[in-house]
Design a protein that fits this description.
Blueprint lengths: L5 E7 L10 H16 L4 E5 L11 H10 L8 E4 L2 H4 L2 H4 L2 H4 L5 H22 L11 E7 L2 E7 L21 H7 L2 H7 L3 E5 L12 H10 L4 H11 L3 E4 L5 E6 L2 E6 L8 E8 L4 E7 L5
Parallel strand pairs: 1-2, 2-3, 5-6, 6-7, 7-9
Antiparallel strand pairs: 1-10, 4-5, 8-9, 10-11
Helix pairs in contact: 1-2
Length: 292
């Protein structure tokens, strides 16, 4: 589908940088971002797992790459965190953490990393200098005749030996779900094309095979039905996410979900979303011809 008046969005997910010395992946990211600039995309979205080890220092790899390409700007890029950004499994499995019966300390560690994430990426979250702005957030932008809104939430749940042993299960907090139903939020979103942003996948394998069911459980978006209802009530058309490293588009109820796959494992592939007037949209996955 082509539009006379349109907004184009590039979507990346699950970059999983593990080191500042990963020159191969850094070069691939520079190539990709350079292509986005050349093609004049209106906006870039990254849906979490920017890094692999929950080391806040590594987020600067992403920030610096965006700066190099003049993309570290509220109107040009939006990012959210994933479980690998906020949960350090090695830290959680140390005996004094793993055997601690008080879950509040685990939540505090996630909250502290989220605070650090918000501090580094705040220029992409707010354009008014609000020092308290962070995930979750609502971002409303105007591109000519098209108004576009992102409703970004954090779906990272703290590590738990029983409920989240791989640190990969997720949920949206009750506080966030309640906030999204506030009349003021719906008022801000009126007359805009609404896109939800989260890290965890609504759908993973979903087969009858026991091995797939076990994998599904470790990756599960625990309160996905509540999230689906919340986004549907807001009038969202799409949700962009990552987490499960598969490039796919699927539907739940009236809502379409787009999985951004994994840049780390497919650094030549990204999603392209085109939004036109009157709420029309199209999507495709694009493969760049990269030199080996």
């Amino acid at each position: 589908m082509s539009f006379d008046k349109k907004v184009t969005i590039a979507h990346l997910s699950d970059l999983h940088f593990a080191s500042k010395n990963d020159r191969y992946l850094t070069a691939r990211l520079d190539t990709m971002l350079g292509e986005f600039v050349r093609l004049k995309y209106d906006h870039l979205v990254m849906t979490g797992d920017l890094i692999d080890t929950a080391s806040p220092a590594l987020w600067t790899i992403i920030r610096d790459a965006l700066v190099r390409h003049d993309l570290f700007d509220w109107g040009k890029t939006t990012v959210i965190p994933g479980n690998h950004d906020l949960i350090d499994l090695e830290e959680e499995m140390r005996f004094y953490n793993a055997l601690n019966p008080d879950d509040r300390s685990r939540q505090r560690r996630v909250d502290e990393r989220l605070r650090q994430f918000n501090a580094i990426f705040r220029p992409l979250i707010t354009d008014d200098g609000d020092a308290s702005a962070g995930v979750p957030f609502v971002k409303v932008m105007r591109f000519g005749e098209i108004s576009l809104s992102f409703v970004a939430v954090n779906t990272v749940a703290p590590w738990s030996g029983l409920d989240n042993p791989a640190g990969a299960r997720g949920s949206v907090s009750p506080e966030t779900l309640r906030a999204l139903q506030e009349p003021g939020v719906r008022q801000v979103l009126d007359d805009t094309f609404i896109i939800g942003l989260c890290h965890h996948a609504y759908k993973i394998y979903g087969t009858g095979a026991l091995v797939d069911q076990a994998f599904d459980w470790t990756m599960e978006f625990k309160n996905r039905e509540e999230y689906l209802k919340s986004m549907t009530n807001l009038g969202a058309k799409l949700v962009l996410h990552g987490h499960f490293h598969r490039f796919q588009v699927y539907q739940a109820g009236a809502l379409h979900f787009i999985n951004g796959g994994s840049f780390r494992y497919s650094p030549e592939r990204y999603g392209e979303l085109t939004i036109g007037v009157e709420g029309r949209w199209s999507h495709r996955f694009v493969n760049l011809a990269l030199k080996k």
